[in-house]
Each structure stands twice: as structure tokens, then as C-alpha cells.
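Dear V.,

Thank you for sending over the compound details. I've combined the ligand you provided, zinc ion, with the protein sequence from our construct and run the structure prediction for the complex. I'm sharing the raw inputs here so there's no ambiguity about protonation or stereochemistry in the SMILES, which I know was a concern on your side last time.
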Amino acid sequence: MSCEGSSRDRGYREINRTVIRCSCGHRIVSKEVIQTGLYLSVLGPSFVYVRYRCGRCKRVGEKLVQEDAWDPSVLGASRVHTEESDRHRFRDMGEITPEEVIEFHYALGRLSADPEEEANQH
Ligand SMILES: [Zn+2]
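Below is the predicted structure of the protein with zinc ion bound, written out as C-alpha cells.
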């Protein structure tokens, strides 16, 4: 780790500010994103995979962004529900408590509860 002052740090941040642009030059926003995923690599940096449909030229494109440089807010995303945002959310939430696991278990039960299945069990 090297820390050579705040000015260098600031420059680093600006370089890494990732904006996704279509080949036509249109800046992609969250509602145009079809899918995001995470590629974990043991050899190098991990990448975030972003697939989008351009709102201007309607072409579908893909982009890989280094995970360190990826900031979902560049898409203006607040409602977009992706694995990547979940991952960060869970990280912020910390460990899952036993109470949450139990609650999840019952929530699943409610989802899969259908009359036919119950009839077969009794
Ligand atoms: Zn485009």
C-alpha cells in the first residue's frame, strides 16, 4: 500500500469513474441496463458485466468494468435490482442472523404453499 498524498488519491478516483457509453455515444442509464453480473477472478481483478440496450440506437451492447472501478450510481440507479447491488447491500447489512434465516424459511414456505401439495402430504 502506498499513500502519496490526497491529490494523487483524487486523480485516481476520477480516472476510475466509470461511465458506460454505447458505441453511438449515448450514455447508458439504469433503465437501459438489461443485466449485470459479477465475474470473480482468482488471478486478477474481478469484473462487473453490464448488458444494456441503448435507448437511442436500440442496439444491445455489453461492457466489462473492473469491479474496483464500478459504481452503480453512474447509471443513476436506485431501483435497479441486480445481484451486484444485492451483494453490496448484504455486505452493508453484515451477518445474517438466525432470526432472519427462520423468517426466510417461513417466507419460502408461504410462497410454495399450494393446496395440491398440502393434500398430498396429508
Ligand atoms: Zn446507441
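A first observation: The chain has one domain: 17-113.

Warm regards,
I. M.
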